[in-house]
Amino acid sequence: MRGDYQQLVDEISAVLAAPATLEDRGFRLIAFGAHEAPEGDDRPGGPVLDPVRTRSILHRRSTTAVRDWFEAFGISRATGPLRIPADPSAGVLIGRICLPVRHRGVVHGYVWLLDDGHLADLETGAGGGPPDPRLAQAMETAGRIGELLAAEARAGAERGELLEDLLTARTAARDAARAGLRSRLGGAADGTLYLAAVVPWDPAGAEGDGGEPVPGLSGLPGALAVRAVPGQGLAVLTCPAPATGAPAQAAVERLLRSPRAAGAAAGVGAPREGLDELERAWWEARAAARAARAEPRLGPVARWEAIGPYRTLAELPPGGAPDAAVAALFRPAHAELARTAEVYLDHAGQAGRAAAALAVHRQTLYYRLSRVERLTGLDLADGEHRLLLHMALKRARL
Questions:
Q1: Which residues form the PucR C-terminal helix-turn-helix domain (predicted)?
Q2: Do the Cβ atoms of 269 and 282 come closer than 8 Å?
Q3: What is the pLDDT, as a whole number, of residue 137?
Q4: I need a labelling partner for 36 at 20 to 30 A (CA). Which of 115, 250, 346, 353 fits?
């Protein structure tokens, strides 16, 4: 599928002799052509590089400000080529022609053509006359892209629904969902799979954020199915990255940049062979995401195998009051003492390293630890007491 998009974008670039970029309707990059200088362009340093296009290629997504700027020209309503002038104040150094990518009246994305000046006389049809035949041919190709994106969106929605049923439904429906997902994934269903969770995920989103409740697969490399599971987060089923064999982490990192993932972290469950243990992988992924939110050094994307003691803590029933021996330490007035005890225990009881991490004098550290002992009744020289306190402090983070 990815190769199909690239081929069609290259067709448009060849017809109009202009670098083309394809983005989905959420302004996520799908494919792009090389930006070469037009024939006879002898400017020092080569062609002018448009920072908006450069950022889109490097970061695989445009900023909200850029999206708002382009949408102000009516690109989401356009049915034909639309010329957009350069505006250096907006970072748009080169003018563009936007080809809306539609299928059955629905916009699925945009093809952007950079105009270094050689497209200035091209008739777009905006004045009532017919568009230039080259633009008409490019719009026909954009229509073929729209068909592909629409088909991918339908397939993605079906896979997402089946994934949600597999993760949350009762046994009978879960078995049917597994069979349906296996049928739609083909050979990938029997290979190595990773399930990731983005927590939290806001399917409603902020007004005007330009995103979709559930992102399309076209902008997420390696993703096989994506679904927002109510009350649990965004589930992302991926295959290994072709080059490294690692989970397709780029897809999850891209999702974390969405406005719908504000304040979120992501977790990846242990790899599974096939679809038979994805329910447990989903639990692991959400636990790893919780650990990444609780302990920023583990994130923003935490793998289940790498969260250490949080694996044990995550198995404990949620909620409940802390152990009576340490309950007093969790009062807001004692937050500094709790932090001191946690850092001290994180550094294996080595006072010098703990004091340095807290940026306090060693005597200050000893004074605080003595207060912790008086408050809890625990003896920090006793291994079991230290274990109880450390586990309680870490569990509180979850």
A1: 337-394
A2: yes
A3: 95
A4: 250
